């Protein structure tokens, strides 16, 4: 497990600097419950960052609390999807889970689509698209101003290519954003939860899972949530049994 992050940027940016430092000291002294309380007090002030969630995940992991550790590492990964250390620690936390659920195999085209979308975050794809658009504009201006057929042909081709790449990357950004918006990932917090066939206590019990399992919330009704597992199974559980990951 990676040690605690103590970011100078956080210290300078947050009015809760002293509390954050106290939490770091408590963690290093192996007073993990105290560290969690202090970090949560920072959260209550409306402060969010990948480093803060990463630290919370580490503290819960040290206490052997599967659900919270997976939950906070997943939230950290949402804010910083390129961080290899967060992914590494999330893998450690997932290894503590009781349930091993296989993901539904994707088709070849589904795998290709997921691979391409996974290269960058949707906002990064958008920035790349804007860069290509700027290149196309500058190339078109150069085509208009520069004399000589060879150079004009070169900048014309570059402008067309940059426009095509810009449209392609912006389309990928849009598709990635649509996928992000359509999903409501959550993590089971209850130590054990039974999935039922209907949003009430009279429904048949379909199966039972344990804390730390990541699910996707499809809909909510009253005090119930219909969730989908990575293997495609669905069922209803009490909403309080899970915590949404995008509730920043």
Automatic annotation (TrEMBL):
<dbReference type="InterPro" id="IPR013105">
    <property type="entry name" value="TPR_2"/>
</dbReference>
<keyword id="KW-0472">Membrane</keyword>
<protein>
    <recommendedName>
        <fullName>SH3b domain-containing protein</fullName>
    </recommendedName>
</protein>
<keyword id="KW-1133">Transmembrane helix</keyword>
<dbReference type="InterPro" id="IPR019734">
    <property type="entry name" value="TPR_rpt"/>
</dbReference>
<feature type="transmembrane region" description="Helical">
    <location>
        <begin position="154"/>
        <end position="175"/>
    </location>
</feature>
<feature type="repeat" description="TPR">
    <location>
        <begin position="50"/>
        <end position="83"/>
    </location>
</feature>
<dbReference type="InterPro" id="IPR003646">
    <property type="entry name" value="SH3-like_bac-type"/>
</dbReference>
<feature type="transmembrane region" description="Helical">
    <location>
        <begin position="125"/>
        <end position="147"/>
    </location>
</feature>
<keyword id="KW-0677">Repeat</keyword>
<keyword id="KW-0812">Transmembrane</keyword>
<dbReference type="Pfam" id="PF08239">
    <property type="entry name" value="SH3_3"/>
</dbReference>
<dbReference type="InterPro" id="IPR011990">
    <property type="entry name" value="TPR-like_helical_dom_sf"/>
</dbReference>
<dbReference type="Pfam" id="PF07719">
    <property type="entry name" value="TPR_2"/>
</dbReference>
<feature type="domain" description="SH3b">
    <location>
        <begin position="183"/>
        <end position="245"/>
    </location>
</feature>
<keyword id="KW-0802">TPR repeat</keyword>
